[in-house]
Specification:
- The complex is a heterodimer of chains A (about 290) and B (about 280).
- With about 290 residues, chain A is mostly helical.
- Chain A is built from 13 helices and 2 strands; from the N terminus they run ααββααααααααααα.
- Chain A is about 75% helix and about 5% strand.
- In chain A, strand 1 (about 50) and strand 2 form a beta hairpin.
- The longest helix of chain A is centred in the N-terminal third of the chain and has 32 residues, at about 70-100.
- Chain A is globular and about 75 Å long.
- Chain A starts with a helix and ends with a helix.
- The relative contact order of chain A is 0.12.
- Chain B has one domain (about 35-270): MetI-like fold.
- Chain B has helices at about 1-35, 40-45, 55-65, 70-100, 105-115, 125-135, 140-145, 150-160, 165-175, 180-190, 195-210, 210-215, 225-235, 240-260, 265-270.
- The longest helix of chain B is centred in the first third of the chain and has 35 residues, at about 1-35.
- Classes of the chains: A mainly alpha (about 290), B mainly alpha (about 280).
- At the A-B interface, helix 2, helix 4, helix 5, helix 6 and helix 8 of A face helix 1, helix 4, helix 5, helix 6 and helix 10 of B.
- Chain B: One of its GO terms (biological process) is transmembrane transport.
- Chain B: It is found in: Cell membrane.
Chain lengths: ~290, ~280
Protein backbone atom coordinates (compact mmCIF):
# COMPACT_ATOMS: atom_id res chain seq x y z
CA UNK A 1 0.00 0.00 0.00
CA UNK A 2 2.74 2.39 0.99
CA UNK A 3 4.60 1.66 -2.23
CA UNK A 4 1.47 2.36 -4.22
CA UNK A 5 1.02 5.72 -2.49
CA UNK A 6 4.62 6.61 -3.07
CA UNK A 7 4.29 5.78 -6.74
CA UNK A 8 1.27 8.04 -7.05
CA UNK A 9 3.15 10.78 -5.28
CA UNK A 10 6.02 10.40 -7.75
CA UNK A 11 3.71 10.54 -10.69
CA UNK A 12 2.41 13.87 -9.48
CA UNK A 13 5.94 15.24 -9.45
CA UNK A 14 6.99 14.13 -12.86
CA UNK A 15 4.21 15.01 -15.26
CA UNK A 16 4.53 15.68 -18.98
CA UNK A 17 4.71 19.33 -17.97
CA UNK A 18 7.52 19.08 -15.44
CA UNK A 19 9.42 16.21 -17.05
CA UNK A 20 11.56 18.31 -19.43
CA UNK A 21 12.96 20.23 -16.47
CA UNK A 22 13.94 16.98 -14.78
CA UNK A 23 15.62 15.79 -17.95
CA UNK A 24 17.45 19.06 -18.39
CA UNK A 25 18.47 19.50 -14.77
CA UNK A 26 21.79 17.58 -14.82
CA UNK A 27 22.92 19.16 -18.09
CA UNK A 28 22.03 22.67 -16.98
CA UNK A 29 23.69 22.20 -13.61
CA UNK A 30 26.93 21.00 -15.22
CA UNK A 31 26.68 23.73 -17.84
CA UNK A 32 26.41 26.44 -15.18
CA UNK A 33 29.21 24.98 -13.06
CA UNK A 34 31.76 24.17 -15.76
CA UNK A 35 30.94 26.56 -18.58
CA UNK A 36 29.07 29.68 -17.45
CA UNK A 37 30.81 30.10 -14.10
CA UNK A 38 34.36 29.75 -15.50
CA UNK A 39 33.69 32.19 -18.32
CA UNK A 40 32.42 34.82 -15.90
CA UNK A 41 35.22 34.07 -13.42
CA UNK A 42 37.76 34.36 -16.25
CA UNK A 43 36.42 37.77 -17.16
CA UNK A 44 36.61 38.98 -13.55
CA UNK A 45 40.05 37.45 -13.06
CA UNK A 46 41.33 39.24 -16.13
CA UNK A 47 40.87 42.54 -14.25
CA UNK A 48 42.81 41.29 -11.23
CA UNK A 49 46.43 40.93 -10.25
CA UNK A 50 47.86 38.89 -7.44
CA UNK A 51 49.33 41.00 -4.70
CA UNK A 52 50.93 39.07 -1.86
CA UNK A 53 48.97 35.94 -2.66
CA UNK A 54 45.59 37.64 -2.95
CA UNK A 55 43.94 38.65 -6.20
CA UNK A 56 43.04 42.32 -6.21
CA UNK A 57 41.24 44.50 -8.70
CA UNK A 58 43.74 46.17 -10.98
CA UNK A 59 41.60 47.63 -13.72
CA UNK A 60 42.92 47.24 -17.24
CA UNK A 61 46.49 46.51 -16.14
CA UNK A 62 46.53 42.99 -17.58
CA UNK A 63 45.17 44.18 -20.91
CA UNK A 64 47.59 47.10 -21.11
CA UNK A 65 50.45 44.72 -20.41
CA UNK A 66 49.08 42.33 -23.04
CA UNK A 67 48.97 44.98 -25.74
CA UNK A 68 52.60 45.85 -25.19
CA UNK A 69 53.82 42.28 -24.84
CA UNK A 70 55.96 41.33 -27.86
CA UNK A 71 55.68 37.61 -27.10
CA UNK A 72 51.91 37.86 -27.18
CA UNK A 73 52.10 39.47 -30.61
CA UNK A 74 54.40 36.71 -31.72
CA UNK A 75 51.95 34.06 -30.49
CA UNK A 76 49.12 35.92 -32.18
CA UNK A 77 51.10 36.12 -35.42
CA UNK A 78 51.89 32.40 -35.32
CA UNK A 79 48.24 31.59 -34.78
CA UNK A 80 47.30 33.70 -37.77
CA UNK A 81 49.98 32.06 -39.91
CA UNK A 82 48.33 28.74 -39.19
CA UNK A 83 44.95 30.25 -39.91
CA UNK A 84 45.92 31.75 -43.27
CA UNK A 85 48.40 29.14 -44.48
CA UNK A 86 47.63 25.82 -42.88
CA UNK A 87 43.82 25.95 -42.97
CA UNK A 88 43.58 26.74 -46.71
CA UNK A 89 46.23 24.15 -47.64
CA UNK A 90 44.54 21.50 -45.54
CA UNK A 91 41.06 22.23 -46.84
CA UNK A 92 42.36 22.22 -50.41
CA UNK A 93 43.96 18.79 -49.92
CA UNK A 94 40.81 17.55 -48.19
CA UNK A 95 38.65 18.78 -51.05
CA UNK A 96 40.95 17.25 -53.65
CA UNK A 97 40.87 13.88 -51.90
CA UNK A 98 37.09 14.08 -51.50
CA UNK A 99 36.62 14.86 -55.19
CA UNK A 100 38.88 11.95 -56.15
CA UNK A 101 37.04 9.58 -53.86
CA UNK A 102 33.76 10.74 -55.32
CA UNK A 103 34.71 9.64 -58.84
CA UNK A 104 32.14 7.16 -60.07
CA UNK A 105 33.24 3.52 -60.38
CA UNK A 106 36.34 4.15 -58.27
CA UNK A 107 37.68 0.84 -57.05
CA UNK A 108 38.82 0.35 -53.44
CA UNK A 109 37.04 3.49 -52.32
CA UNK A 110 36.52 2.16 -48.78
CA UNK A 111 40.21 1.35 -48.47
CA UNK A 112 41.22 4.87 -49.42
CA UNK A 113 38.66 6.45 -47.16
CA UNK A 114 39.76 4.44 -44.14
CA UNK A 115 43.42 5.16 -44.88
CA UNK A 116 42.89 8.90 -45.13
CA UNK A 117 40.75 9.04 -42.02
CA UNK A 118 43.06 6.99 -39.79
CA UNK A 119 45.28 9.92 -38.71
CA UNK A 120 42.14 11.60 -37.37
CA UNK A 121 41.65 8.98 -34.66
CA UNK A 122 45.22 9.34 -33.40
CA UNK A 123 45.89 11.62 -30.47
CA UNK A 124 47.71 14.81 -31.33
CA UNK A 125 50.36 13.86 -28.80
CA UNK A 126 51.00 10.55 -30.57
CA UNK A 127 51.04 12.28 -33.95
CA UNK A 128 53.57 14.85 -32.73
CA UNK A 129 55.80 12.18 -31.21
CA UNK A 130 55.87 10.10 -34.39
CA UNK A 131 56.82 13.21 -36.36
CA UNK A 132 59.57 14.14 -33.89
CA UNK A 133 61.25 10.93 -34.96
CA UNK A 134 60.45 11.30 -38.66
CA UNK A 135 61.73 14.86 -38.71
CA UNK A 136 64.85 14.35 -36.60
CA UNK A 137 67.63 16.36 -38.25
CA UNK A 138 70.42 13.78 -38.10
CA UNK A 139 68.58 10.48 -38.10
CA UNK A 140 65.04 11.17 -39.31
CA UNK A 141 63.59 9.32 -42.26
CA UNK A 142 62.55 12.53 -44.02
CA UNK A 143 66.06 13.96 -44.02
CA UNK A 144 67.46 10.59 -45.03
CA UNK A 145 65.21 10.60 -48.07
CA UNK A 146 66.10 14.21 -48.85
CA UNK A 147 69.81 13.42 -48.56
CA UNK A 148 69.55 10.35 -50.74
CA UNK A 149 68.03 12.36 -53.58
CA UNK A 150 70.80 14.89 -53.24
CA UNK A 151 69.03 17.58 -51.25
CA UNK A 152 70.35 19.19 -48.12
CA UNK A 153 69.21 18.13 -44.70
CA UNK A 154 66.61 20.41 -43.18
CA UNK A 155 66.55 21.46 -39.52
CA UNK A 156 62.88 20.68 -39.26
CA UNK A 157 62.35 21.29 -35.58
CA UNK A 158 65.21 23.59 -34.65
CA UNK A 159 65.02 26.32 -37.27
CA UNK A 160 62.32 28.97 -36.81
CA UNK A 161 61.01 28.83 -40.35
CA UNK A 162 61.08 25.05 -40.68
CA UNK A 163 59.58 24.54 -37.23
CA UNK A 164 56.53 26.40 -38.46
CA UNK A 165 56.50 24.29 -41.61
CA UNK A 166 56.67 21.16 -39.45
CA UNK A 167 53.79 22.37 -37.31
CA UNK A 168 51.75 22.98 -40.45
CA UNK A 169 52.74 19.57 -41.78
CA UNK A 170 51.69 17.67 -38.66
CA UNK A 171 48.44 19.58 -38.26
CA UNK A 172 47.57 18.97 -41.90
CA UNK A 173 48.44 15.28 -41.65
CA UNK A 174 46.22 14.91 -38.60
CA UNK A 175 43.17 16.81 -39.90
CA UNK A 176 43.01 16.56 -43.71
CA UNK A 177 41.27 13.17 -43.69
CA UNK A 178 38.79 14.32 -41.07
CA UNK A 179 37.73 17.23 -43.26
CA UNK A 180 37.77 15.00 -46.33
CA UNK A 181 35.11 12.78 -44.79
CA UNK A 182 32.86 15.76 -44.12
CA UNK A 183 33.40 17.15 -47.64
CA UNK A 184 32.83 13.74 -49.23
CA UNK A 185 29.46 13.47 -47.52
CA UNK A 186 28.68 16.94 -48.86
CA UNK A 187 29.68 15.93 -52.40
CA UNK A 188 27.50 12.86 -52.24
CA UNK A 189 24.52 15.03 -51.42
CA UNK A 190 24.82 17.10 -54.60
CA UNK A 191 22.01 15.95 -56.90
CA UNK A 192 23.28 14.12 -59.95
CA UNK A 193 20.79 15.84 -62.30
CA UNK A 194 22.83 19.02 -62.07
CA UNK A 195 25.88 17.32 -63.55
CA UNK A 196 23.81 15.52 -66.17
CA UNK A 197 22.17 18.73 -67.30
CA UNK A 198 25.58 20.40 -67.52
CA UNK A 199 26.96 17.49 -69.54
CA UNK A 200 24.10 17.84 -72.03
CA UNK A 201 25.01 21.50 -72.34
CA UNK A 202 28.56 20.38 -73.09
CA UNK A 203 30.24 21.73 -69.94
CA UNK A 204 33.77 20.51 -69.25
CA UNK A 205 34.80 18.76 -66.03
CA UNK A 206 36.54 21.88 -64.80
CA UNK A 207 33.57 24.11 -65.52
CA UNK A 208 31.33 21.64 -63.73
CA UNK A 209 33.65 21.70 -60.75
CA UNK A 210 33.65 25.47 -60.45
CA UNK A 211 30.05 26.10 -61.40
CA UNK A 212 28.28 23.19 -59.72
CA UNK A 213 30.48 21.47 -57.16
CA UNK A 214 31.90 24.52 -55.41
CA UNK A 215 28.63 26.49 -55.11
CA UNK A 216 26.69 23.41 -54.01
CA UNK A 217 29.37 22.52 -51.50
CA UNK A 218 29.63 26.01 -50.05
CA UNK A 219 27.74 25.34 -46.78
CA UNK A 220 29.81 22.24 -46.09
CA UNK A 221 33.04 24.04 -46.96
CA UNK A 222 32.03 26.81 -44.60
CA UNK A 223 31.38 24.23 -41.90
CA UNK A 224 34.85 22.70 -42.25
CA UNK A 225 36.32 26.19 -42.33
CA UNK A 226 34.62 27.15 -39.05
CA UNK A 227 35.69 23.88 -37.40
CA UNK A 228 39.29 24.44 -38.50
CA UNK A 229 39.24 28.03 -37.27
CA UNK A 230 37.98 26.96 -33.85
CA UNK A 231 40.70 24.31 -33.81
CA UNK A 232 43.39 26.81 -34.76
CA UNK A 233 42.53 29.16 -31.92
CA UNK A 234 42.86 26.19 -29.57
CA UNK A 235 46.08 24.86 -31.07
CA UNK A 236 48.19 23.58 -28.20
CA UNK A 237 48.94 19.85 -28.26
CA UNK A 238 51.04 19.93 -31.44
CA UNK A 239 53.36 22.86 -30.65
CA UNK A 240 53.70 21.69 -27.03
CA UNK A 241 54.84 18.23 -28.03
CA UNK A 242 56.51 18.86 -31.36
CA UNK A 243 58.61 21.94 -30.76
CA UNK A 244 57.89 23.15 -27.21
CA UNK A 245 56.72 26.35 -28.83
CA UNK A 246 60.23 27.07 -30.06
CA UNK A 247 62.71 27.74 -31.36
CA UNK A 248 62.62 31.27 -30.04
CA UNK A 249 58.81 31.17 -29.75
CA UNK A 250 58.44 30.54 -33.48
CA UNK A 251 55.66 28.02 -32.86
CA UNK A 252 54.15 29.56 -29.74
CA UNK A 253 50.37 29.84 -30.16
CA UNK A 254 47.88 31.92 -28.18
CA UNK A 255 46.64 28.93 -26.21
CA UNK A 256 50.18 27.81 -25.54
CA UNK A 257 51.06 31.26 -24.24
CA UNK A 258 47.98 31.19 -22.04
CA UNK A 259 49.08 27.83 -20.66
CA UNK A 260 52.59 29.11 -19.98
CA UNK A 261 51.35 32.20 -18.16
CA UNK A 262 48.79 30.19 -16.19
CA UNK A 263 50.61 27.02 -15.33
CA UNK A 264 54.30 27.84 -15.57
CA UNK A 265 54.20 31.32 -14.01
CA UNK A 266 50.85 30.91 -12.24
CA UNK A 267 49.85 34.38 -13.32
CA UNK A 268 46.14 33.61 -13.50
CA UNK A 269 45.07 37.21 -14.00
CA UNK A 270 47.27 37.71 -17.04
CA UNK A 271 46.41 34.27 -18.42
CA UNK A 272 42.72 35.10 -18.10
CA UNK A 273 43.24 38.32 -20.03
CA UNK A 274 44.80 36.24 -22.81
CA UNK A 275 41.85 33.84 -22.67
CA UNK A 276 39.28 36.63 -22.88
CA UNK A 277 41.09 38.42 -25.68
CA UNK A 278 41.52 35.26 -27.74
CA UNK A 279 37.85 34.51 -27.17
CA UNK A 280 36.86 37.87 -28.63
CA UNK A 281 39.34 37.52 -31.47
CA UNK A 282 37.87 34.20 -32.51
CA UNK A 283 34.34 35.57 -32.19
CA UNK A 284 35.24 38.54 -34.39
CA UNK A 285 36.93 36.33 -36.90
CA UNK A 286 33.90 34.05 -37.10
CA UNK A 287 31.54 36.98 -37.29
CA UNK A 288 33.59 38.56 -40.04
CA UNK A 289 33.72 35.38 -42.10
CA UNK A 290 30.13 34.32 -41.61
CA UNK A 291 28.92 37.70 -42.86
CA UNK A 292 29.14 36.34 -46.37
CA UNK B 1 39.49 3.27 -78.84
CA UNK B 2 41.05 6.62 -78.14
CA UNK B 3 38.47 7.22 -75.46
CA UNK B 4 39.19 3.91 -73.83
CA UNK B 5 42.90 4.57 -73.65
CA UNK B 6 42.28 7.92 -72.15
CA UNK B 7 40.06 6.51 -69.44
CA UNK B 8 42.63 3.85 -68.54
CA UNK B 9 45.27 6.55 -68.28
CA UNK B 10 42.97 8.62 -66.14
CA UNK B 11 42.30 5.71 -63.84
CA UNK B 12 45.99 4.95 -63.42
CA UNK B 13 46.70 8.59 -62.66
CA UNK B 14 43.88 8.74 -60.13
CA UNK B 15 44.99 5.62 -58.30
CA UNK B 16 48.59 6.81 -58.45
CA UNK B 17 47.69 10.07 -56.71
CA UNK B 18 45.51 8.31 -54.16
CA UNK B 19 48.24 5.83 -53.34
CA UNK B 20 50.70 8.66 -52.73
CA UNK B 21 48.07 10.03 -50.33
CA UNK B 22 47.80 6.65 -48.60
CA UNK B 23 51.57 6.48 -48.16
CA UNK B 24 51.55 9.91 -46.55
CA UNK B 25 48.71 9.13 -44.20
CA UNK B 26 49.64 5.56 -43.23
CA UNK B 27 53.43 5.79 -43.54
CA UNK B 28 53.95 7.45 -40.13
CA UNK B 29 52.11 4.57 -38.45
CA UNK B 30 54.41 2.11 -40.17
CA UNK B 31 57.34 4.09 -38.86
CA UNK B 32 55.85 3.90 -35.38
CA UNK B 33 55.78 0.10 -35.65
CA UNK B 34 59.37 0.05 -36.89
CA UNK B 35 60.35 2.22 -33.94
CA UNK B 36 58.44 0.16 -31.39
CA UNK B 37 60.15 -3.07 -32.44
CA UNK B 38 63.72 -1.86 -32.73
CA UNK B 39 66.26 -0.66 -30.16
CA UNK B 40 66.75 3.09 -30.00
CA UNK B 41 70.26 2.78 -31.42
CA UNK B 42 68.98 1.04 -34.53
CA UNK B 43 66.31 3.66 -35.06
CA UNK B 44 68.81 6.47 -34.79
CA UNK B 45 71.27 5.17 -37.30
CA UNK B 46 72.08 6.17 -40.82
CA UNK B 47 70.77 4.64 -43.02
CA UNK B 48 67.75 4.06 -40.79
CA UNK B 49 66.33 0.61 -40.18
CA UNK B 50 63.24 0.29 -42.32
CA UNK B 51 61.89 -3.08 -41.23
CA UNK B 52 60.18 -4.07 -37.98
CA UNK B 53 62.67 -5.69 -35.61
CA UNK B 54 62.42 -8.11 -32.72
CA UNK B 55 63.09 -5.76 -29.83
CA UNK B 56 59.44 -5.36 -28.80
CA UNK B 57 59.70 -7.21 -25.49
CA UNK B 58 62.85 -5.34 -24.45
CA UNK B 59 61.25 -2.02 -25.34
CA UNK B 60 58.22 -2.97 -23.28
CA UNK B 61 60.39 -3.86 -20.28
CA UNK B 62 62.28 -0.57 -20.58
CA UNK B 63 59.10 1.41 -21.03
CA UNK B 64 57.56 -0.28 -18.03
CA UNK B 65 60.63 0.61 -15.97
CA UNK B 66 60.54 4.22 -17.11
CA UNK B 67 56.84 5.04 -16.57
CA UNK B 68 53.86 3.17 -15.08
CA UNK B 69 52.52 2.62 -18.59
CA UNK B 70 49.94 -0.03 -17.71
CA UNK B 71 48.56 2.18 -14.98
CA UNK B 72 48.39 5.05 -17.50
CA UNK B 73 46.58 2.81 -19.96
CA UNK B 74 44.16 1.79 -17.21
CA UNK B 75 43.54 5.47 -16.33
CA UNK B 76 42.84 6.32 -19.95
CA UNK B 77 40.38 3.47 -20.33
CA UNK B 78 38.52 4.10 -17.07
CA UNK B 79 38.31 7.85 -17.62
CA UNK B 80 37.11 7.51 -21.21
CA UNK B 81 34.52 4.83 -20.40
CA UNK B 82 33.04 6.65 -17.39
CA UNK B 83 33.03 9.87 -19.38
CA UNK B 84 31.19 8.33 -22.32
CA UNK B 85 28.43 6.80 -20.21
CA UNK B 86 27.98 9.84 -17.98
CA UNK B 87 27.96 12.15 -20.95
CA UNK B 88 25.57 10.02 -22.99
CA UNK B 89 23.14 9.89 -20.07
CA UNK B 90 23.22 13.63 -19.36
CA UNK B 91 23.25 14.70 -23.01
CA UNK B 92 20.58 12.32 -24.21
CA UNK B 93 18.26 13.37 -21.36
CA UNK B 94 18.79 17.00 -22.37
CA UNK B 95 18.48 16.24 -26.08
CA UNK B 96 15.26 14.36 -25.41
CA UNK B 97 13.80 17.28 -23.45
CA UNK B 98 14.69 19.69 -26.26
CA UNK B 99 13.37 17.43 -29.00
CA UNK B 100 10.18 16.06 -27.53
CA UNK B 101 8.77 18.60 -25.06
CA UNK B 102 7.27 21.97 -25.56
CA UNK B 103 8.19 23.96 -22.48
CA UNK B 104 9.03 27.44 -21.40
CA UNK B 105 12.70 28.16 -22.01
CA UNK B 106 13.25 25.40 -24.57
CA UNK B 107 14.60 27.72 -27.23
CA UNK B 108 16.57 29.98 -24.91
CA UNK B 109 18.34 27.16 -23.09
CA UNK B 110 19.07 25.31 -26.33
CA UNK B 111 20.45 28.46 -27.93
CA UNK B 112 22.77 29.07 -24.99
CA UNK B 113 24.10 25.52 -25.28
CA UNK B 114 24.74 26.12 -28.97
CA UNK B 115 26.49 29.40 -28.22
CA UNK B 116 28.73 27.56 -25.77
CA UNK B 117 30.00 25.43 -28.65
CA UNK B 118 31.77 28.55 -29.90
CA UNK B 119 33.50 29.20 -26.59
CA UNK B 120 37.11 28.12 -26.74
CA UNK B 121 37.75 25.49 -24.12
CA UNK B 122 40.84 27.27 -22.86
CA UNK B 123 38.81 30.27 -21.71
CA UNK B 124 37.50 28.07 -18.88
CA UNK B 125 40.62 26.30 -17.66
CA UNK B 126 42.00 28.82 -15.20
CA UNK B 127 38.84 29.26 -13.09
CA UNK B 128 38.20 25.51 -13.31
CA UNK B 129 41.68 24.83 -12.01
CA UNK B 130 41.12 27.24 -9.14
CA UNK B 131 37.72 25.69 -8.40
CA UNK B 132 39.10 22.16 -8.37
CA UNK B 133 42.03 23.22 -6.21
CA UNK B 134 39.60 24.70 -3.71
CA UNK B 135 37.55 21.50 -3.75
CA UNK B 136 40.74 19.45 -3.40
CA UNK B 137 39.88 17.61 -6.60
CA UNK B 138 43.24 18.07 -8.30
CA UNK B 139 44.78 14.77 -9.41
CA UNK B 140 41.47 12.86 -9.44
CA UNK B 141 39.50 11.17 -12.20
CA UNK B 142 36.48 13.36 -11.58
CA UNK B 143 38.52 16.49 -12.25
CA UNK B 144 39.31 15.17 -15.72
CA UNK B 145 35.84 13.78 -16.41
CA UNK B 146 33.31 16.25 -15.03
CA UNK B 147 33.95 19.52 -16.91
CA UNK B 148 32.94 18.09 -20.27
CA UNK B 149 30.17 15.67 -19.33
CA UNK B 150 27.67 18.25 -20.51
CA UNK B 151 28.94 18.30 -24.10
CA UNK B 152 26.89 20.76 -26.18
CA UNK B 153 27.76 19.16 -29.53
CA UNK B 154 26.50 15.80 -28.26
CA UNK B 155 23.28 17.39 -27.02
CA UNK B 156 22.83 18.97 -30.43
CA UNK B 157 23.39 15.70 -32.29
CA UNK B 158 21.09 13.73 -30.01
CA UNK B 159 18.36 16.34 -30.23
CA UNK B 160 18.45 16.20 -34.03
CA UNK B 161 18.06 12.44 -33.93
CA UNK B 162 15.41 12.38 -31.19
CA UNK B 163 13.23 14.58 -33.35
CA UNK B 164 12.70 11.50 -35.50
CA UNK B 165 10.86 9.63 -32.75
CA UNK B 166 7.14 9.89 -33.59
CA UNK B 167 5.06 11.79 -31.02
CA UNK B 168 2.29 9.24 -31.47
CA UNK B 169 4.56 6.54 -30.07
CA UNK B 170 5.22 8.56 -26.91
CA UNK B 171 1.54 9.46 -26.60
CA UNK B 172 0.55 5.80 -26.90
CA UNK B 173 2.98 4.89 -24.13
CA UNK B 174 1.48 7.61 -21.93
CA UNK B 175 -2.02 6.28 -22.52
CA UNK B 176 -0.75 2.84 -21.51
CA UNK B 177 0.20 4.44 -18.20
CA UNK B 178 3.96 4.65 -18.63
CA UNK B 179 5.69 7.41 -16.64
CA UNK B 180 7.82 10.05 -18.37
CA UNK B 181 11.05 8.63 -17.00
CA UNK B 182 10.32 5.12 -18.15
CA UNK B 183 9.25 6.36 -21.59
CA UNK B 184 12.69 7.93 -21.89
CA UNK B 185 14.58 4.85 -20.76
CA UNK B 186 12.44 2.14 -22.30
CA UNK B 187 11.25 3.77 -25.48
CA UNK B 188 13.34 6.76 -26.52
CA UNK B 189 16.81 5.45 -25.69
CA UNK B 190 16.43 1.99 -27.29
CA UNK B 191 15.23 3.47 -30.58
CA UNK B 192 18.25 5.76 -30.58
CA UNK B 193 20.90 3.04 -30.33
CA UNK B 194 22.70 3.72 -33.65
CA UNK B 195 22.89 7.46 -33.01
CA UNK B 196 23.99 6.95 -29.41
CA UNK B 197 26.70 4.58 -30.60
CA UNK B 198 27.95 7.20 -33.06
CA UNK B 199 27.95 9.98 -30.47
CA UNK B 200 29.48 7.63 -27.88
CA UNK B 201 32.38 6.80 -30.18
CA UNK B 202 32.90 10.46 -30.91
CA UNK B 203 33.02 11.21 -27.17
CA UNK B 204 35.32 8.26 -26.49
CA UNK B 205 37.84 9.40 -29.10
CA UNK B 206 37.66 12.93 -27.76
CA UNK B 207 38.42 11.87 -24.19
CA UNK B 208 40.98 9.22 -25.15
CA UNK B 209 42.98 11.86 -27.01
CA UNK B 210 42.32 14.70 -24.58
CA UNK B 211 45.60 16.27 -23.54
CA UNK B 212 45.64 19.81 -22.19
CA UNK B 213 43.19 19.44 -19.33
CA UNK B 214 44.55 16.13 -17.97
CA UNK B 215 48.03 17.66 -18.26
CA UNK B 216 46.88 20.47 -16.00
CA UNK B 217 44.90 18.57 -13.37
CA UNK B 218 46.83 15.30 -13.11
CA UNK B 219 49.94 15.90 -11.06
CA UNK B 220 51.46 12.48 -10.36
CA UNK B 221 52.73 9.91 -12.84
CA UNK B 222 50.41 7.17 -11.59
CA UNK B 223 47.42 9.32 -12.45
CA UNK B 224 48.50 10.46 -15.90
CA UNK B 225 46.48 9.40 -18.89
CA UNK B 226 48.37 7.97 -21.87
CA UNK B 227 48.83 11.23 -23.81
CA UNK B 228 50.17 13.03 -20.73
CA UNK B 229 52.46 10.13 -19.85
CA UNK B 230 53.81 10.03 -23.42
CA UNK B 231 54.32 13.74 -23.54
CA UNK B 232 56.36 13.64 -20.33
CA UNK B 233 58.38 10.73 -21.64
CA UNK B 234 59.10 12.60 -24.88
CA UNK B 235 60.16 15.65 -22.91
CA UNK B 236 62.98 13.84 -21.12
CA UNK B 237 66.49 14.84 -22.07
CA UNK B 238 67.64 11.44 -23.23
CA UNK B 239 64.83 10.05 -25.30
CA UNK B 240 64.76 6.32 -25.89
CA UNK B 241 62.88 6.19 -29.19
CA UNK B 242 62.15 2.48 -28.94
CA UNK B 243 60.33 3.01 -25.66
CA UNK B 244 58.65 6.14 -26.89
CA UNK B 245 57.34 4.61 -30.11
CA UNK B 246 56.04 1.59 -28.22
CA UNK B 247 54.23 3.89 -25.79
CA UNK B 248 52.79 5.77 -28.75
CA UNK B 249 51.66 2.50 -30.29
CA UNK B 250 49.94 1.55 -27.03
CA UNK B 251 47.93 4.76 -27.21
CA UNK B 252 47.23 4.54 -30.95
CA UNK B 253 46.48 0.86 -31.55
CA UNK B 254 43.39 0.41 -29.32
CA UNK B 255 41.56 3.39 -30.79
CA UNK B 256 42.56 2.31 -34.30
CA UNK B 257 41.14 -1.18 -33.76
CA UNK B 258 37.89 0.31 -32.46
CA UNK B 259 37.87 2.57 -35.50
CA UNK B 260 38.41 -0.26 -37.98
CA UNK B 261 35.60 -2.30 -36.44
CA UNK B 262 33.14 0.56 -36.11
CA UNK B 263 34.16 2.91 -38.92
CA UNK B 264 30.66 3.66 -40.04
CA UNK B 265 29.75 4.93 -36.59
CA UNK B 266 32.90 7.04 -36.45
CA UNK B 267 32.07 8.76 -39.66
CA UNK B 268 28.44 9.30 -38.80
CA UNK B 269 29.57 10.64 -35.42
CA UNK B 270 31.23 13.61 -37.12
CA UNK B 271 28.52 13.94 -39.74
CA UNK B 272 25.75 14.66 -37.27
CA UNK B 273 24.91 11.19 -36.04
CA UNK B 274 23.04 10.18 -39.15
CA UNK B 275 24.05 6.74 -40.30
CA UNK B 276 24.07 6.60 -44.06
CA UNK B 277 26.26 5.14 -46.69
Amino acid sequence: MAVQAEKKEKRKWITPKTAPYFFLFPAVLLFLAFMVYPIIASLILSFQTRVEGVYQFSGLDNYIRLFSDPIFYKALGNTFIILFVQVPIMLFIALLLAVFLNVKFLRARAFYRVSFFTPAVTSLVAASIIFILLLNTDYGLVNFILASIGLEKVEWLTNSFWARVSLILVTTWRWAGYNMVILLAGLQNIPNDLYEAASIDGASQIRKFFHITIPQLKPVLLFTFVLSTIGTFQLFDEPYNLTNGGPNNATLTITYYLYNQGFNYFDFGYASAIAILSYYLSLFYHGYNLRW
Amino acid sequence: MMDNQQSVLRRVLLHGLLIVGVIFSIGPFYWMVVGATNPSGEILSSPPTILPGSYLVENMTNLHDAIPILRNLFNSIVIAVIFVFASLLVCSAAGYAFAKYDFKGNRVIFASFLLAMMIPYQATIIPLFQLFSALDWINTYRAVILPQVCYPFAIFLIRQNMKGIPDSMIEAARIDGAGEISIFFKLALPTMKPALAAVGIFLFTHQWNNFMWPLIVMTTQENYTLPVALSTLAGLNSIDYGQLMLGTAISVVPIMVVFLILQKHFVSGILGGSVKE
